[in-house]
Amino acid sequence: MAGEQGTGRAFADIMRLAEQVEPGQPGWTRRVFSPEYRSSRALVAELMGGAGLTVTQDAAGNLIGKLPSDRPEAPALVLGSHTDTVLGGGRFDGMAGVAAAIEVARRLRERGQPLARPLWVVDFLGEEPNAFGISCVGSRAVAGALTREHLGLEGPDGRTLADALGEHGADPERIAEARWASGVVGSYLELHVEQGPRLERAGVGLGVVTAIAGIHRAEIRLVGRADHAGTTPMGQRRDALLAAAEVCLALEAIGSRDESGVATVGHLVLEPNSANVVPELVTLVAEYRSSDPNWLTESDRQLVEMISEAPSRRGVQGAMSWLSQEPPTACSADLMRLLTRAVGQLGEEPLALSSGAGHDAVQIASLCPVGMLFVPSRDGRSHCPEEWTEPDQVELGVRALEAAALELLSGGPNGEWA
Ligand code: HGY
Ligand code: MN
Ligand code: MN
Predict the structure, then answer these.
(1) Do both 36 and 159 map to the same domain?
(2) DSSP letter assigned to residue 378
(3) Ligand 2 centroid vs 364 CA: distance in angstroms?
(4) What DSSP state is assigned to residue 313?
(5) What is the per-residue pLDDT across 22-75, written as a single tens digit (0 to 9) for each?
(6) pTM tops 0.90, yes or no
(7) Which residue, 130, 168, 286, 392, is most buried by CB atoms nearer than 10 A?
């Protein structure tokens, strides 16, 4: 693959972005609204501009680069992903997709490729869950799904999401202007690292995504009673942390009951959090995911039943509120076939697989058909500093994305595309 014009440029861009991380944080942390995230987007805008894209930032803080077309009125092809990370995250989750999209635009412009429709390259703001408890902020906005309630969500320091967007240079008062009008976009493709082990296990370099898991996320509050750890007999305690332990183990059982889904408690706050005080209050976030809507519904039933029964056996009050109940998202069958053809042009046979991770594509699916390409993650690791994808794996992904984009930008095999 060496020698193909532009080989290595996307990977180099990923490494350059990785230099902009929050000081003192683990891994390659660059959380949305951090100063480092804000300064890193100046680099993304520079890379987009250098690729010949005309770059704007919309009211939601999305960076949108556009290549003009001979037919400006045709529905655009959008290539995108995100450049924010989780705390302690890696260098590829999201960034691989934005860098690949920019590189595809570079190559098309360098070749003077005529475009039958506009090409947009998007870095969506804030795909990862943030301190306000909401993910996919930018892609929700373009889908018209970022509500006033969302904007009013308060973070731990009392600031709202709207405050954070304003401080980031976005314009929450004009958020409605970020919405993409019906028919303006025709197709969306996202390249992303798999963040799991299947491509590597199968020895396959490219995956075509069939569906994106639905994610149900609930905040659970367990209220017991603070007591002296030394003088309170075990039988008289109302220990919120032991009730939380039962919730965590019940969630493990919900996620392990078959191969259809997974469940996690990744966030837990304990009060007063003192070694010599029986825990009084635990707030935790429980989430589970599946591409099977019935599995999610049954999991809801089991969780609600469990919360209504188990804590009270310990004299602990249990309450839950849903943070999100996103259904599974099917990828477009047309775009899956197109991506499979594109991969075939490279002499590769892709693996069809579902995504356990959520993506901006979930929000964009309400506007137009979406397709996703996966490239391998070493040891299946992600959301950790060890996250890694080899340069030639990134390059193969770029070439597959470019081949797919070319078919869509040339008007598609049968003249018109969705
Ligand atoms: O949580 C996810 O699946 C994604 O990384 N935001
Ligand atoms: Mn992620
Ligand atoms: Mn991601």
Answers:
(1) yes
(2) G
(3) 17
(4) G
(5) 999 999 999 999 999 999 999 999 999 999 999 999 999 999 999 989 899 999
(6) yes
(7) 286
